[in-house]
Specification:
This protein has 319 residues and is of the alpha/beta class. The chain has a single domain, classed as Rossmann fold (3-Layer(aba) Sandwich). Helices cover 30% and strands 22% of the residues. The strands form two sheets. It has an eight-stranded mixed β-sheet with strand order 4-5-7-6-8-9-10-11, with helices on both faces. Strands 1-2-3 form a three-stranded antiparallel β-sheet, with no helix packed on it. Strand 8, helix 4 and strand 9 form a beta-alpha-beta unit. Helix 1 packs across helix 8 and helix 2 packs across helix 4. The chain is globular and about 60 Å long. Belongs to the 'GDXG' lipolytic enzyme family. GO terms for molecular function: carboxylesterase activity. It comes from Eutrema salsugineum (Saltwater cress). It holds the Pfam family Abhydrolase_3. This is Alpha/beta hydrolase fold-3 domain-containing protein.
Length: 319
């Protein structure tokens, strides 16, 4: 019974009849490091939710920590992707990416761990991410529980970013910040290859293949969010095609990054178009890499296009 497979959802997970979940990727962990002698960026893990045993990984450029170089830095809150199912801030792919952009941009970054499906179905990931955002903002008066954030974060320059599922959640964090009047105000959000979807295509160029559409719907409806009344038309997932109000988006500027060979490309472009028409007062910038696929910058970080995107993201944060 223990070894009998109940369902398999490649390339993410295998679920066994005894309830055990086997993640097929995104399970490797890299430790943080405070060794400033050999690292341009130091990092540490800090628990933000004792209730759920969840941490953030904080990244700090060590050249900003010494003597007369000390100064306030822009702050990036990062929400990782992985279909709400796999990966973590401690995965090599995310640890290395955050290290590189922090090194390039000379800012402070807080990478968020959240509970993942199927053990903790949506909305757990959204609730946890919001708890992490509020935890970060508890430092805005300099008296929060974490010294690095108290000492180095410039709360006039706070950004939220994420890719794929994390891009989706970054949008919802900014919407929630507007509804709950989060202060200080978020400066900007970066929505990278966002996992937005719906029962129907958003336009004639969106994915028409029914089998592919059903495959994406299955991940949401059977694994990530089985309790969604509207399935893939849940407003958490169907951000573009639903009647969601964007006017309360609580930031000054938005970067939307899409890849031409990504299944979510039309959704990302549709999101930017909807935002521009929504009555939201702010600046929208769209970055398109036509010949690349989903999260190419994470899959092939040394490529020219990945380096170009990294510069664009860093510029968005420090510009």
């Amino acid at each position: 019974m223990e070894s009998e497979i109940a369902s398999e959802h490649l390339p993410f997970i295998r679920i066994y009849k005894d309830g055990r979940v086997e993640r097929l990727s995104g399970t490797e962990i890299i430790p943080p490091s405070l060794d400033a002698a050999t690292n341009d960026v130091v990092s540490k893990d800090v628990v933000y939710s004792p209730e759920h045993n969840l941490s953030v990984r904080i990244f700090l450029p060590h050249k900003s920590t010494a003597g007369e170089n000390k100064k306030k830095l822009p702050l990036l809150i990062y929400i990782h992707g992985g279909a709400w199912i796999i990966e973590s801030p401690f995965s090599p792919i995310y640890h290395n990416f955050l290290t590189e952009i922090v090194k390039s941009g000379n800012f402070l970054a807080v990478s968020v761990q959240y509970r993942r499906a199927p053990e903790n179905p949506i909305p757990a990931a959204y609730d946890d991410s919001w708890s992490a955002v509020k935890w970060v903002f508890s430092h805005s008066d300099g008296s929060g529980p974490e010294d690095w954030v108290n000492e180095f974060a410039d709360f006039g320059k706070v950004f939220i970013a994420g890719d794929s599922a994390g891009g989706n959640m970054s949008h919802h964090m900014a919407i929630r910040a507007g509804k709950e009047k989060l202060e200080p105000r978020i400066k900007g959000i970066a929505i990278v290859h966002p996992a937005f979807w719906g029962r129907d295509p958003v336009d004639e160029k969106d994915v028409q293949d029914r089998e592919m559409r059903n495959g994406i719907a299955e991940v949401w409806e059977k694994i990530a969010s089985p309790n969604s009344v509207d399935g893939t038309d849940d407003p958490l997932f169907n951000v573009v095609g639903s009647g969601s109000d964007f006017s309360e988006l609580a930031c000054e500027k938005v970067l939307v990054a899409v890849a031409g060979k990504d299944v979510f490309v039309r959704q990302g472009l549709g999101y930017a178009a909807k935002l521009e028409k929504s009555g939201w007062v702010g600046d929208v910038e769209v970055v398109v890499e036509e010949d690349e696929g989903h999260v190419f910058h994470l899959q092939n970080p040394n490529s020219k296009n990945a380096e170009k995107f990294l510069k664009k993201l860093v510029g968005f944060i420090i510009g």
